[in-house]
Design brief:
- There is one protein chain.
- The protein has 13 helices and 25 strands.
- It is globular.
- Strands 7-3-2-11-18 form a five-stranded parallel beta sheet, with helices on one face. It has a five-stranded mixed beta sheet with strand order 19-17-12-24-25, with helices on one face.
- The protein has 553 residues and is an alpha/beta fold.
- Helix 1 (18-27) runs parallel beside helix 4.
- The structure holds succinic acid (SIN).
- Residues 50-51, 253-255, 344, 380-381, 383 line the site of succinic acid.
Length: 553
């Protein structure tokens, strides 16, 4: 069956989080279509973000200090050029949000309230509504988008594939999507992937259900260059709930520990004091591993929120308290159970500083992109900033490309054969198994044996997926089928990159290679199905930093 109709627009943005909406606003008055598979524009990780936005605004701070903290947290693997751009654009980005009406929290003197978070050398994180910064940011951007006539929004619409010209001069021509109108080919001169992360590849995650690596998988299938896929950041303190039925685990923000919350073992004793000089405020990867190792040994771990609630007041943590109460827990009465959970993917589609990918016509920004700013370990509260800064940079580059004729109008995509979708219940079962495999073998601590076991199990799972009984395409069937297909595309690539990185660095820890290795201070890049370069180590651009070696375990 052929797609129902062709529609044409020069610019299409896939994803409606901070990166996608920020790019759409910066592109106005250029006509743009924003596509999201969720029923409304409230989508992706942005509305759930409890941390704030980092920016060097204080008198004792500078972009240079913020940059050096970012490099340090990144375990010596950041791209110094893009991370410098990020930190230099911080103050301008906050100023832009203020003009859009973002209700940042204020200190008593009326100035922006600035908090210090783990691994930041200065107080430079601004919040809105305490732990509700992401929600306030999403609401601010959505209000602007709804008031911008040049932005057209397609909700409940799943982007299934990028449509390409054939070799030798491969170029993007548009997208194959499925939504309430059925199948549709959308011609586009420029496509921006802003489709978020892939936290749903793990059983325990802070990510919403829509974070299934769709954009990364689409780019992979189009042979676009990817990098740093082995680096998934696990947050140490998600709320461990009795039966999450595979849904996201509520986050207990790091700001709680910043305000004095304590990590306790099953005997009610603090254990981080003996693990790291900064105790509860040690880097996120160190705390997550300390919690995860104890849990793997059968111990329950808890967070005592009471010191933080006493110091900052309950009004500072509305989302945290709502989540606890929703699960029948009262943190004012005693410690609550926690678990580490997949939180943020540092790797993704390789972009240059303008957000261009290796495929002409395709840009990427936000969590799906790998700009290199986060290296092996993202500094807290740098992700919303990255989404906003690079969403804006992508928009500027597209405007320039349109103005100088680098995006000549081209014929719309050819009609293509439509994929056959599978039964949603069977897809859900495959997804659940994939998430178990990833949590068991590709989690906080990895080794060769576990990774090869995961690779084999994922290959078997893919074969099962291909053989599933087919179902008629509908809004109810296409999205779950496309999400399972995406997870089955990206999870083996994470395993491949993790096997390739034979060292421990940042969020990637290997039992069989516990040391950080100077000869691995390089980026693992790969292209799907490229037999000549299954996973390559590529030098970092602007490579001028020292090469310290230390053990992370
Ligand atoms: C948190 O609030 O702990 C998360 C912040 C972040 O991921 O940057």
């Amino acid at each position: 069956m052929a797609p129902r109709r062709l529609s044409e627009t020069p610019i299409v943005i896939v994803g409606a989080g901070a990166a996608g909406l920020s790019a759409a606003l910066a592109l106005a008055p250029q006509p743009v279509i924003v596509i999201t598979k969720t029923p409304s524009l409230t989508s992706g990780s942005t509305p759930w973000a409890q941390g704030g936005i980092a920016a060097a605004l204080a008198a004792d701070d500078s972009a240079c200090l913020h940059h050096s903290d970012t490099l340090e947290a990144g375990a010596d693997l950041c791209d110094p050029t893009t991370s410098q751009m990020l930190t230099e654009d911080g103050p301008r980005t906050i100023a832009r949000l203020l003009t859009l009406g973002m209700p940042f929290d204020r200190a008593d003197d009326g100035r922006l309230a600035m908090a210090r978070e783990a691994a930041h050398s200065r107080a430079r994180v601004v919040h809105a509504g305490g732990d509700s910064t992401g929600k306030a940011l999403a609401e601010t951007l959505i209000a602007q988008v709804e008031a911008t006539p040049s932005i057209q929004v397609m909700t409940a619409t799943t982007v299934v594939d990028l449509a390409l010209d054939g070799a030798p001069d491969q170029r993007l021509r548009g997208l194959l999507v499925h939504g309430p109108q059925g199948w549709q080919m959308i011609a586009a001169d420029a496509v921006v992937l802003a489709s978020g992360g892939m936290g749903m590849a793990w059983q325990e995650t802070t990510n919403p259900a829509e974070n299934t690596g769709d954009g990364l998988a689409m780019a992979a299938r189009a042979q676009v260059l990817l990098a740093d896929l082995e680096f998934m950041q696990f947050h140490p303190t998600a709320l461990r709930v009795a039966d999450s039925s595979g849904a996201r685990l509520p986050l207990l923000t790091e700001a709680l520990r910043g305000a004095g919350a304590l990590l306790l073992d099953g005997q009610g004793q603090r254990f981080m004091v003996g693990e790291h000089p900064l105790a509860e405020l040690a880097p996120r990867d160190v705390v997550a591993r300390a919690v995860g190792l104890r849990q793997a040994a059968g111990e329950d771990i808890f967070l005592d929120l009471r010191p933080a609630l006493a110091r900052e007041g309950a009004a500072h943590f509305p989302q945290v308290l709502e989540s606890c109460h929703a699960h029948g827990l009262d943190p004012s009465l005693g410690p609550v159970p926690i678990a580490p959970a997949a939180h943020y993917h540092m790797g993704g589609v390789v972009t240059d500083p303008r957000g261009r990918t290796s495929l002409p016509g395709l840009w990427a920004c936000g969590e799906v992109a790998c700009t290199g700013v986060h290296g092996a370990n993202r500094l807290a509260s740098n992700s919303l900033l990255e989404a906003l800064v690079f969403g804006d940079r992508v928009a500027s580059d597209i405007v320039l490309a349109l103005a100088d004729g680098r995006l000549p109008p081209r014929p719309g995509p050819r009609m293509q054969t439509l994929p056959q979708v599978a039964d949603p219940a069977a897809c859900a079962e495959i997804t659940a198994t994939l998430r178990q495999i990833m949590s068991r073998h590709v989690g906080l601590i990895r080794d060769h044996q576990g990774l090869t076991t995961a690779a084999d199990a994922l290959a078997d799972l893919s074969a099962r997926f291909d053989a599933l009984p087919k179902a008629a395409a509908s809004v109810e069937t296409v999205r779950p089928w496309a999400e399972t297909r995406a997870l089955l595309t990206v999870a083996p690539l994470v395993v491949q990159a993790a096997l390739q990185r034979q060292e421990s660095r940042g969020a990637h820890a290997r039992l069989d290679y516990p040391e950080r290795r100077a000869d691995h201070r390089q980026r693992v890049t790969l292209r799907l199905g490229d037999p000549a370069t299954p996973a390559q180590i590529a030098p970092l651009p602007g490579d001028t930093l020292p090469l310290p070696t230390r053990s992370l375990l």
